[in-house]
Amino acid sequence: MAGSDKLNITPPRWLLAELSYKCPLQCPYCSNPLDYAKYPHELSTDDWKRVLSQARRMGAVQLGFSGGEPLTRQDLSELVRYARELGYYSNLITSGYGLTEERIIELKQAGLDHIQVSIQASTQELNDHLAGTTTYQHKQEVAKLVKKHGYPMVLCVVIHRQNIHQMPQILEMAENLGADYLELANTQYYGWAHLNRDALLPTREQFEKAEKIAQAFKEKVAGKMKIYYVVPDFHEDRPKACMNGWGTTFLTIAPDGTALPCHSARELPGLDCPNVNDFSIEQIWNESKAFNFFRGTDWMQEPCRSCDEKHKDFGGCRCQAYLFNNDMYSTDPVCSKSPERHRIDAAIASAREASLAETEKPLVFRNSKNSKQLF
Amino acid sequence: MTINPDQPISFSPMHRLQWEEAQQKFVILYPEGMVELNQSSAEILQLCDGSRLLGQIVADLEAKFATAGLTNDITNFLNVALQNGWIRQA
Ligand code: SF4
Ligand code: SF4
User: Which Gene Ontology terms describe the biological processes this protein takes part in (chain B) (predicted)?
Assistant: First the structure.
């Protein structure tokens, strides 16, 4: 493993524990890798406990249990209890599927701090279509139960062209459900969302209109509901400061134990992402090739290398650079200084064309059958 | 929203105040976020346990640090804390 002594390595603060790739839903924008079906192996309860202890010792404190659907793990409460004892602030990121009142109480007693429920749309018809499962009613129930049992209620809605017209109704739904936090997550185009981009990417007009509505709502509910608005970077001219800088803050562990500097890093070539069954979290974080790959700024090319904004956005997202430019060292194509910006503009134009076409290309849903067919 | 001096101040049940050994400081944890506190902010917030009024918090801290004239600083900080939802009154 390559050492790096010249960099000042900060310890991880956020641990994302992807407990399982199993999920009863089939969202066509799922951020799981397209080939997830290739990794059916899951870490054992003891493996996860070891990971939690090691990361906590280094300073990780925010913990997200996600997936797939983390509720598919029978040992979830046990892991929540263990995390609480270690002092984590833990979050269950769930579709709500299979979440009963009994389980909500059990998780609360185990020490879970909050539950983030995702809803696909503001109507049953669209929600169930996007989820590929009948879930709308149950999700509404779950949201109410989360609130009833004293958790801060975080509602998450992923925004894209199929539901962006529902923005006013989505906001109304969040208000009616009494959400304490509302995450309006404009789709990030990785994994399945990348595959379905022509059908998901909103036009600039749609995006601007929706943003204006969300902005006005934010002011209206200030002090009552906190809105996290995740921007769709395609329509910006600067990239996001991806992961707050590579290997500075976030640590993701995939269901099979692969440690990832970001949840799409698995798709980058030659990173050799290490597995928690072979190395300790400390070794992985400090010494592994993958976590040191894009630390600091030495790896950058022009125009990033001599740009005075490089400490602000770290050159953007490596996965986006790879997906668009086939060069993971290049400037994020979202940036207007990138010579490849035209590729983003072409993607926007292509999606707009698809939206005007008489018959839209069907969505490819996220499920094992499609995952296996794609590879 | 400002602090009412006649009502006890408690820490929000929707947030968690905790000592972080790795960072050697107190932090406030909440969904998707974390605020690192300096020592004086942490001292103040630890007294927001639902049993004290503003005046008592000031008196306790002035006694603890053998000083006087903290009223303004503490009130200002608590107003910010209230606006951020870290503390609440009845
Ligand atoms: S995005 Fe949808 S399909 Fe993917 S893990 Fe979440 S709920 Fe399941
Ligand atoms: S050139 Fe690179 S560092 Fe400069 S703003 Fe664009 S992405 Fe950021």
Answer: pyrroloquinoline quinone biosynthetic process
